[in-house]
Amino acid sequence: MAINNAKDSSDSGFRLPPSVANLAFDLELTIGFTVVALAFIYIPILSGTIIRTVLGLMMVLFVPGYALIAALFIRNKDIDYMERAALSFGLSIAIVPLIGLALNYTPWGIRLDPIVICLSIFTIACSLIANKRRQELSEAERFSIDFRPLYYQVKAYMIDGHTPFDRALSIVLVASMLLFVIVAAYVIVVPKQGETFTEFYILGPDGSANNYPLNFSQGDTKPIVVGVVNHEQRNVTYDLVIALNDSVNTTILHSETLELADNTTWEKTIGLMPGHTGTDMEMEFLLYKDGNLTSPYRECHVWVNVT
Fold it and tell me: What is the pTM of this model?
């Protein structure tokens, strides 16, 4: 009798592990939603749309909590749809600050990229764990989303509850979740107008707040760093004037006009050469805003000697 050593073609090639293959419908949606949210965050052509805000809101308020609930409660009889939805909201709100707290003790810190990456890894990992645990159960025991039972459960909670108190509690729960989502979306889409101000500073040649050039010889040029940071929440035109002032006259050492967009930093090393000798002369660094040259908007002062 011949022995057939040939292998079935279906046994050859790469196979996905059980935790990835045959993903449940709800877990496919969870992972797919995470991938789409990442695309809208990091692809430039998509990142400027309102869809990014909506997806980001769901990534913070619902998706991570749902993935964790899916990993913890894998049976149909563990909890029902309404409880899953409520717990998903609550756990998501708890998970995001905990991830931020953990990142605070790492070199990456609490920034957008580390938070997004960690939140995505957490969501995908919980989804894969949930799928693996479900595969160990019989098909009848596994939790799965079926829209007909979902409709009947919602109807039972909202209309056919055992007591009026149960119905009222369910309505309040759903209304609270909807109100929370609406308020959170409003706060993110329409942020509160913050304080407007401009940072103006001078630094020594080494970039630190000391070692300023205070002693000159006539004809010497010494550098100083001048910085402006616009937090006015709009584009602003500044006029920078550096003057040497003694008891007799004022000499303009440097002047220029800057146009800065909001949240933009301008920093420049400027060489200063006093034109006349004197002791304890005031060197003024004056910053004017929007063409108003009558009084400086910000100013810094140092006292120098020129021999």
Answer: 0.51
